[in-house]
């Protein structure tokens, strides 16, 4: 029937993390996610249809006439958290992460001993109590190595207690730096505070970084205009571990510690879109978008470096690494319509980057509901 035709596909736990609340079970989160996808549907969709209207025509008409959501909801869904529920994680006096209540409780015995970690009064940047890692590293010892050994023991304790699933361990140590240092390329002059198992980062609230590239095209009838006419949108491969089949930027990827942002974005453009060097050379840095949301694992904080790349008419990105199902060139009006009406079809953080692009290129203005709050959330400083 019509109602079945409008049902969204079943949600996968990996795809709804930005929606989950700290105190929700995975099943509760999935059920709420499905309910919110359906909340714009009429209570009885069949009653919406005319008696002589074909089912397919009714579905299409309903989708065209249903209420349009403000873009603010796309930004808010990636910024849902209560910072007061998390405890700052420190190395010496510098903050490196946030502990959620579950991780904090699991470390109770270690906190009582006070060797691997201890409770301290918060500094000026934080309020209340904080947890400091490896407070007794002696002078003259390689601090990063000593703290890394201590953190490895804490991670193992969380694994033994079932907080971190053993199956998720990757045995990939990642550098952890103070918030004040921002992103630091590995091997440079700035030494890490410590190294931590990659799978444990989210449980300790350590921020992560990424790069996203907006590929845009001018209006062929107005080549002198700088207003973007269309955007290349990628559909993620169905084989991707996270967000398979959802809409994404033309190029996007996580940020490895071994590369600079510039090196990484060029590598991703080659691998994901097969762009030639002369095209990649024209890429323009466009700032960053930061967001933070609470998950059952911990507080996820991400900083995405954004780039704009004007694409010539006739130049089409081609996937060479299997991570993209297809590329489509959508007019900007269709991109905005999709963000408003089909938000669940977008990878959550990719929707943020697309909205940020529209704001920066004056495709949105103060007539957009919640515009001021939308812009504030896109431009917030979290790290």
Automatic annotation (TrEMBL):
InterPro entries: DUF4743, NUDIX_hydrolase-like_dom_sf, NUDIX_hydrolase_dom
Superkingdom to which the source organism belongs: Eukaryota
Alphabetical list of Gene3D superfamilies matching this protein: Nucleoside Triphosphate Pyrophosphohydrolase
Record Pfam families: DUF4743 (PF15916), NUDIX (PF00293)
CDD domains: NUDIX_Tnr3_like
Nudix hydrolase domain sequence ranges: 208-356
GO molecular function, one term: 8-oxo-dGDP phosphatase activity
Protein name: Nudix hydrolase domain-containing protein
